[in-house]
UniProtKB/TrEMBL annotation:
Positions of region (Disordered): 504-536
Biased segments, Basic and acidic residues type: 513-536
Protein name in UniProt: Ig-like domain-containing protein
Coiled coil: none
Length: 536
């Protein structure tokens, strides 16, 4: 066991929010505040006294944060020259559940602490000095425990391990020492293993950083050599149980129960192998439900290392007659969805199977391109992207269902605090006539931006039709008056107001009489007015 000499805390906004600080607060309060600056904290302490302290970190409108920018208060646990015994990491913003104010209880020791903001791009940092407390006159609390394998008389067989623990709530533990069997005291850094046969005594003590030394504690114990005379392997046997048919075969399944005993050193392990597979540890009766002939081999090893001969049982499992119908299997996907139907953060796939004849034997699933594996509990998928889960079931008669599948998309949860809808606009392009009508066709290009969580979807509707996903500029060539409405949604679920673009499309004009025909009519009739009309 490694000695925990000082308080080490890792705190975030969730754990701080759920702890009632009022019942745990120390008399010494150190307050840190943040505002709109990314180069310095609005206020922070420069000195403190060793011992318990309440850390208050507030980054709110009350402390000058008008932008909603989050900051952290993070204690340095790696830079040389500073104390590293307080591991504190608090994230706060005016929009979090605590409105940017958090408290944490720590224990400070003499020396210097460095703190900083861990947000990317922030250069906020500082340090404060902790001086010793003259009020600490209480020595540390120290205790020891002995562990190991015992015999019937309570002696430790082979070896015993002594673990010492010490704590000090004021100045903190400085050193822990122990003495084995009257030898000089030495520094304790890890559990002490004693493997020399005989009676032993371990004395121990601890000193805090204020110089107070605890009274000496003591544990005594006896170590005995492992039994060397055991050369007899364990006794091991197996029994098969289940419902049999007239031929002595087990219907649907058979259960193999293995028993082992050793009158000397005792049984250490029991192992089994089903149908030639590698040996595995036996911890509970083995159920076999696959139709066919089976062999279970088994063996046991005692604590002296003696292994029994391998035993074996053979049996046959059959299916109820007449079952040729595969199981019914289905899957459902659950989770929080965004406006586009994507699962935010994660999706959970639950597979159900039933078989009214021989019963379901196994259910399997495969995620994306992976191979099929056994299904035992709902499958949670939190990797962003499009996913496919395939599934199937096998009954006890060996009938396998067709492979089913479900498809879904997981998206990253939106950044916290985004309540602003995207900016969306549309541009119409094309050739226009003198009346501002678009000749033959008009092209509508829609664009959207979002500075917070980012644009998730853009949608459009032409002439009152249902909204559809916008993926490329729209070309409209049907003559007449048209209205295109459009909108955008960001990854935080904020949807913009609906924009509108209205315009008209007309067909281009063409001459109704070819020029050569008009010329012929003019020559035939010498009709000046006819020629003018053709020119027109």
């Amino acid at each position: 066991m490694v000695l925990l000499a000082t308080a080490a805390l890792w705190l975030n906004s969730t754990t701080l929010h759920t702890q009632p600080a009022a019942t745990q607060a120390a008399a010494q309060v150190l307050t840190f505040t943040g505002n709109d600056s990314i180069t310095a904290y609005a206020s922070a302490p420069t000195t403190a006294t060793a011992g318990p302290a309440t850390i208050v970190f507030e980054n709110s409108a009350a402390t000058g944060n008008t932008t909603g920018m989050p900051h952290t208060l993070t204690f340095d646990t790696s830079t040389p020259g500073y104390n590293h015994d307080v591991d504190l990491n608090i994230t706060a913003s005016p929009y979090d559940p605590n409105k940017g104010r958090y408290e944490a209880q720590v224990n400070l020791t003499p020396g210097k602490y460095r703190y900083f903001c861990a947000m990317a791009g922030h250069q906020m940092s500082g340090e404060f000095v902790v001086t010793g407390s003259a009020a600490d006159t209480t020595p540390p609390q120290v205790s020891a425990s002995v562990t190991g394998d015992k015999d019937a008389a309570g002696n430790y067989v082979g070896s015993a391990t002594v673990t010492i623990s010490a704590q000090d709530t004021e100045s903190g533990v400085d050193t822990v020492e122990y003495s084995l069997d009257g030898q000089p005291f030495t520094a304790y850094s890890s559990p002490v293993t004693v493997n020399q046969p005989g009676q032993h005594m371990v004395h121990y003590r601890a000193k805090d950083k204020a110089g107070n030394t605890s009274p000496e504690g003591m544990v005594s114990f006896t170590v005995v050599a492992p039994p060397a005379q055991d050369k007899t392997p364990p006794q091991v046997s197996a029994q098969v149980s289940g419902t049999k048919d007239g031929a002595g075969n087990y219907v649907n399944s058979a259960t193999v129960t293995i028993s082992a005993s050793d009158a000397e050193s005792g049984v250490a392990t029991v192992e089994y192998s089903l149908d030639g597979q590698p040996y595995a540890a036996y911890t509970a009766p083995v159920a076999v439900n696959q139709p066919g002939k089976h062999t279970v081999n088994y063996r046991a090893t005692d604590k002296a290392g003696n292994t029994s001969n391998v035993g074996a049982v053979e049996f046959t499992v059959t299916s109820p007659p007449g079952d040729t119908t595969a199981p019914q299997v289905s899957a459902a996907v659950a989770g929080d969805k965004d406006a586009s139907g994507n699962y935010v953060g994660s999706a959970t796939v639950t597979i159900s199977a039933q078989d009214s004849e021989s019963g379901v034997a196994t259910v399997e699933y495969a995620l994306d391109q992976a191979t099929f594996v056994g299904y035992s509990a709902p499958v949670s998928v939190n990797q962003p992207g499009q996913h496919t889960v395939r599934y199937r079931a096998t009954d006890k008669a060996g009938n396998v269902s067709a492979v089913g599948s479900v498809q879904f998309t997981v998206v990253t949860p939106p950044a916290p605090g985004d309540t602003t809808a995207p900016q969306v606009s549309a541009v119409i392009a094309g050739s226009m006539d003198w009346a501002w009508n678009y000749v033959d066709s008009a092209t509508v290009t829609i664009s959207a931006t979002d500075a917070g969580s980012g644009v998730a979807t853009i949608e459009y509707s032409v002439d009152g039709q249902a909204f559809a996903a916008y993926t490329a500029p729209l070309t409209i060539n049907q003559p007449g008056r048209h209205t295109v409405t459009y909108r955008a949604t960001d990854k935080a679920g904020n949807t913009s107001a609906v924009g509108t673009a209205s315009f008209s499309v007309v067909k281009s004009k063409s001459k109704t009489k070819p020029a050569d025909r008009c010329e012929k009519e003019h020559n035939d009739h010498k009709d000046h007015d006819k020629k003018r009309n053709c020119d027109d």
